[in-house]
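lol ok so funny story. i was supposed to be doing the assay writeup but got distracted and ended up predicting the structure for this chain instead. priorities right. anyway since i did it might as well share w the group, maybe its usefull for someone
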Amino acid sequence: MDLKMKVNHLPALTYRFLKSNSSEIDVNDLYIENTKTPEPDMIPIAVTVKSDAAKSDVQDAFAEVNDKIKAKQTELPGPNGDTAPFNAGQIVRTGMGVEVDNLMDEMNVPVMIITADEGYKVEEPVHIKYSLKDGECVLGSQVICAKKGSEITVIMEYESEADAKGFLGISTRLLAEEGAKINLVKVQMLSEGFVHFDDIGGVCDDKADIETITMQLGAGKTWGGTRVTLLGRKSIFNNHTGYLCRHTQEYDMNYVADQYGQKTESNMVFRGVLLDNAVKTFRGTLDFKTGSAGSVGDEQEDTLLLSPDVVNRTMPVILCGEEDVDGRHGASIGQLGDDTLFYMESRGIDEDAAKKLMIRARMESIARMIPDEALIVRIQQYIRTIL
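and the output, tada:
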């Protein structure tokens, strides 16, 4: 099959000549034969896993919160260039948009539903690992549901054989019910011959919390999107993303926090490094909906450019339909400073070694947040191998 999808729409259009309102996945001659999510290494107590759920099961899981979202939506017009109609019909609004859902439906991809029982704080993480061979083309879909007052951690790891080529597309949707918390970790260490997308969408009810940690380290072309709807009062979304792009790698991402409830809080941090002829596009939006009084949001990007030939596009956006909110964004984008290099060289560290040291430090600042020591070691080893 040939795959062509419009993804990563900005919530509100900007100037077309920037060519950043959305992105396109265009891949030919895919033969997708694996659509089943790998079984977790271990299923902790108070966690249930349904491996072959249907679209109707997902609709049922999100029915209650979707009714609440509709009740909060007003008839007031959206921002100029509102792109919401592009993704109408999604069960859960995601960062990449409805065309990923359409692909999953077209290919009859079964959904793995992982559920944490009400009131349980699950201590052991659920670990899902994709290990791909040369030529494999794989799709996967998951729903992670934390019932009222529960907490669950899910770690997803993507790796492949060295120098392998292939395709991996993932859709993950999250539901944190009242007082619940979901910790989601995704680490991508595919070879550069892979094309990859990873789409995330989530909903937080009252006093619920979604925490995401994402590391994008491999694959030749990567698209990523995360959109979390802070529906309930005092709901929280925290995200930490680390990315390393080198050679001719391309990374296109779209992060959105839809803040509906009162006193909601979102915090999105991005740390990355670009080398050689890499290309990166970042879209980050804080969208304060009418009724989100007392809410705060912050998005910060810190990108280190280690080549004059990289292409870096950064679009932080704040949309505001409510007066009593606090939204902040900022970007620190630049090269390794001469003072830093001088300090390193004065201690016997040459420029090449200094750059590698700074890259590892930046990536490990995100990796250290992952609650899995063995995975942290694998990340460190992967980075040392590719640098």
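The chain has five helices and 19 strands. The first helix runs from residue 55 to 72.
back to the writeup now i swear
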